[in-house]
Write a structure and sequence with these properties.
The structure is a single chain. The chain is α+β, with helices and mostly antiparallel strands and about 90 residues long. The protein has a single domain (about 10-94), classed as Thiolase/Chalcone synthase (Peroxisomal Thiolase, Chain A, domain 1), CATH 3.40.47. It contains 3 helices and 2 strands; from the N terminus they run ααββα. It has helices at about 10-30, 35-45, 85-94, and strands at about 55-60, 70-75. The chain has a two-stranded antiparallel ribbon. The longest helix is centred in the N-terminal third of the chain and has 21 residues, at about 10-30. Pfam families: HMG_CoA_synt_C. This is Hydroxymethylglutaryl-CoA synthase. It comes from Leuconostoc mesenteroides.
Length: about 90
């Protein structure tokens, strides 16, 4: 599997790992339409253990119409304290 053809092996591995982390909650819940992009962000923050403060994330959403959105966010210090990872995992397990 490749995300970006030109990416080196290390970058490719990290992209694939983060993609899979971002898909975990969506695979449990299904399509939320607009909410899916935010559920994917929550999933990434919950499962990708190697994210660190200062990193930038690109959040891209493309709808079925002619609309698309691209956000860039920067992870802040102690961001992980505000991610309800265990609560979300427990709620999805019920």
């Amino acid at each position: 599997d490749q995300i970006i053809d030109e990416a080196d092996e290390r970058t490719q591995g990290r992209l694939l790992k983060n993609l899979k982390a971002s898909q975990k909650f969506s695979r449990e819940v299904g399509n939320l339409y607009t909410g899916s992009v935010y559920l994917s962000l929550l999933s990434l923050l919950s499962y990708a253990q190697d994210l660190v403060a200062g990193e930038q994330l690109a959040i891209f959403s493309y709808g079925s119409g002619a609309e698309a959105e691209l956000y860039s966010i920067t992870l802040q210090e102690n961001f992980f304290k505000y991610v309800p990872a265990n609560e979300t995992k427990n709620e999805l397990a019920d």
